[in-house]
Amino acid sequence: MVLYKRKQVKIIPPDDLPEDLTTQVWFIPETKEWFLSYSDYIKRMDYLKTRNFVCEITGNSCLTYFEALKSEEQEIREVEKNFPEALKEHILRFLQFNRISRLDMLVDNVYQVFKNDYFPGETVFLRGIDNNNNVSNNSTNNKEHSTKQRGTIREKVQYGQDQPTKYLVVRLNDNHQAIVTEQNISRDRNHFTKWLIKTFIKLTMSRSYKVGAPWVVKTKYAKKYSIPTTYPDDLKQFADTTPTGDIVFIQPKKKRGPQPKITETPPKPPKPPKEPKKPKKIAIKAERKQPTPAPTKPIVPIAPAAPPAVVVPFKKKFPTHYIPDAIMKEYEEEEAKGTPSFGLSQFQPTKKNIVEDLELKFDLQNSKPLPKILSLPENAKYWNQQIIEEEKEKEKETEGEIDEIERERERLSCYRLPSISEALQSWIFLNVYHNILNIDTFTFDDFVFAMGWNADQFSEDGRCELLDEIWCAVLSAIVSNELPTNKEAKDYKERDEIYGLTITLPEKDEINEDSENDSEEDEDEDEKEEDEKIKQEKQPQQDEKQNNIKDNESNSDQVSSSKPKGDDSEDHGSESESEEKQLDIDTEQSDSEENDKESNTDKPVVTHNAYECMNHRGTSWDERLRKRNFKDGNWQCILLGVLSLVEHVPQYETTINKIYHKLAPKDKPATALSVRNQFYDELDIELKFKALNILIDLVISSPLVRNHIDSCLENSTSLRRNRLDNLKEYKIVLESAQKAHQYITTKLATTKNVSQLDQSSPEQQQQSQQQQPQQPQQTEQISEIKKGLDLNKLELSESERLLAEQDNEFKEQCNIRKDAIIKLNQLKEAKREIEQKLTELDCQRMKLLGKDRLYNRYWWFENNGLPNLHSGGNNNDEDDDDDENNDNNKKDEGENENENENEDKGENVDSDNENEEEVDDDVHDETYLMGRLWVQGPSNNDIAIHFKTDLKDAQEFSNKIDKIRLENNGQELDNGKVNEENNNNTTTTNSNTNNNSNSNSSSSNNNNKVKKLNFSKLPSQLITTVRDSFALDIKEKGIFTQSGEKLIDEEGSFMVPLAKLSNLQRKCIEEFPDPLMTGSDWRYYDKPEDITKLISWLNPWGKRESLLRKELSLVKEAIISSMEARRKALWIDQTPPEELEISDNIKKLKTKLFGGSGDDNENENHLKDKTDAAEEDDDVILTSSAKRARRSTGSRKRQKVVTVQDALEFGEPEDVNKMIKELEKELIEKKDNREINRVLEWVNSRALDLFEKSLYEGGDKQKSNKSKQKKK
Q1: Measured distance CA(772)–CA(547) in Å, rounded
Q2: What does the UniProt entry say about where the protein is found (predicted)?
């Protein structure tokens, strides 16, 4: 961009084209300006040739326009040639709205930030990589490693802030891959310099002339690299003065002569109409504020009924969606005129008029449905109580460590699933990558229940196959099943490595260096430089000592292999001591020798047998894993071995130590069976999820997963090509079908008219001849394919069949249409299958549906990556170009959807009941994976930026709420919305009592009802915590500030401006009494009606909620079908037929016993009264009739009562009572065994198909090693 006096050069706008296109014009190619007169052309050229122009990039001045433009083009070519393309987007995102005014400081900042940061696609130099793709940090060992080799970065991964960034690079000479860090790669010095950065900034950025203006990316580059261009709120003042880099035209100056007179006259006529506006606005506001009407009618009896008639209608006081203030003012102005030209319903939200969600008003009448909390499964809850009781007994015996026991008791007494994030992550990973893990898919309900499998269930029902297969599948992905040769085994043992390890482990040295750097952040830079020099001087000594220690360890390992079982603990203890000595040597090089001796004497004492258990009977855990020996507690021992690989990681250390002490305590024998028993006895469900999550974190970065993702991407690209080919073929076939159908309809119309003319009288023929010019228009309207072409109709009608017998050409067109319709249906089915496969192959990351106004995140985990069991009605079965078939297809879709819904509910709507009779459809209706819509709290950035609070404070509040709910036995807290009363002041529209999942009907039902707020039932602790955390005072009939100002009244309406309420307070009020404060807070919806209520609650005028509403509406039908399948499979809304039969038998027996069909409670009370009366009246004299009955019964033989039918026919009261108790016990057992039977029915069908046995039985085990020996 050439500058003239530090401003962009403006271009003369082109004139209108002359009528004669052969007119000669004068053209300037550099500016693309043309002139009709030569004088104008000369003036412009004289201006452009003056030496007053400046090159923006180089800063050279005293140039002509053409010289400055040439200089800029040369610099642009230089930047495009040398500057890395992969860096441009990231640097622009970093510079967007940057407030550093000085350019040199900005260049230095960019250079320091991106100096050691590399991105995929960059061409870099590689160092320290040998021919076997092994990375060696010591380049002095081999000269070949020090040579630079060119390569490209393919992927970039960073597992944490403390972890170093790792890059997957590919060498250009042989296309070999390697994982390296920033120490092994570097850029070309000529491609990343401060001069190039400065040139790039001048080329792509611009800045306003005002003080404090930020740097802004030019429009051309913002569109190219998708850089957001919306200004922050505090920088919007610079938007108008910041150059965008686009062409700026010279605007003609406005004439100032007669304009002031014109501006003075228009204000006079609007003044008279403003006067009648004021009383109308004042009257409307007075009607809203003052309930008493104007005393126009002096009728005394109507006076008491007047106040409710003036009250604001319900829809106006509590609208379903609040509209932005600007649009509301515009509507009120039109309404105040008396004759509004449009209604409020005609306003539609667009990208231009939607606003920030928190700028819109709210009330508590139309609140969103309350999500549920995932509670612990019954088996885990019961077993946690058993562990707590055991801990109480241990507390009596041991006096110390009371604090730890109390913490453990609080953790185990939690009513909800504490490790919900780990559970969801584990379930998603196992189901998304189930193909490479050789495991079949399973539901989240079965997964949680299986993870809570306890010792009682293990002793009664045996092992849980789902639980064993999950652990065995994940463990099998860590070490391959390939068996090493003797030479390979020796080599790996000497190097202290594991053969076949498929995961990358974090190194101890890197973690120690990170921790040391974190502890030394507060020191001066000079001291850090001196320490680094000392470490570099003593590095060779450290390497020699470490090599000596490793040699000693290898020798001790060889000796330990010949020792018996009892010596395993000593060997592992020596290994751990040697590791500690290595760490001591690393950290104490600058200390004295006395400190070295003291540090060696302070050694931690191992208080568990985990190291002995993982190498039980002299065989290492990795050898067992390689041989797939999982039975009889072996996979639990393997689990200990895998956890020992990452026990030095700080984020895993505490969890792994707990697992060590739970699975292998010191007082238990170091055997596999004891570890298995401890797994079911002592390990609770939270630790199980955390241990599984650690394994999954290791497997996620393995080549097994990366290769699967690459293959999915390749398959998805081929499927997209097939989809395009499918669309092209669909359009071609559709055109042929349309032509044939048009010919058929026109032929039928003409033949019908001819037959009518033959049968009519001469007078009618004359009338028809007069109407003949109108017939072609009618036939064209009839032949519209939108109305005529039916893709589900293959058979000919009677008229078509009769005409086809007479006309061969007509018959041929009918056959063409029939074949085309069959082909179209096949293409639609193929497209549907392609769409389902694409959603399954999209397994890189789970897609977020969106955020609501309070920054809560919504997840539907069946949206991508998982098998698409329930594809909703939003599938693109019809092409967007098929405008002519939309109506018929929509009708067909609506009929199919109604049939599916009625099949799920068990209702017969149509006469075609074939689908209900098939077993496959019934199984599909009960098949699901998740069946829940999950709601997650705001992220850490949202908490800090938008709610302006600390993460610790938010976590403390959620912990307090958990304690309050725990004291209330895990019950849901009252939200205060009770006492629904009819609002007689509003106009009743349509009282629909049907409980359908329709937002329109639900909103119409609530039009004439007002929910009164009453917080009297809330616990006092909750009120105090809300007062302390959010400065809100919750009273019985409203919410107030601490100063006494009312925020929410009894009806739930907001009483003060939004500016007086903080975002955090609003979140507490809208989500009261259970606000989602952190990202670890999870809730879910599992009812279809809640989804429709949620969509209707989302405000389309908000930025976030409009997007979320759109995404939810797209997947609404799929979510509802999945929820209905889950509720049907788990018998949530219904009872199984077996239990129904038992309950019916109980009712029949109770009616016979008590002689009536009363309630169960009344029957039980009646039974107690009879038994009490019988016990009290033992000494009462019997009557003669009773004596005869006693004698008669004593003389007969008593028949045995075996079945319910026997009890109903000839059972005595005692027999009936006994039968009732047995049936009630059986009913309780069946209800308790629902989930157990469902989990036990699960079978790993994928492993059975591949290996003919499960993974637990060693299905993935390598069969033989003969082929490997033959190759040698």
Answers
A1: 106
A2: Nucleus
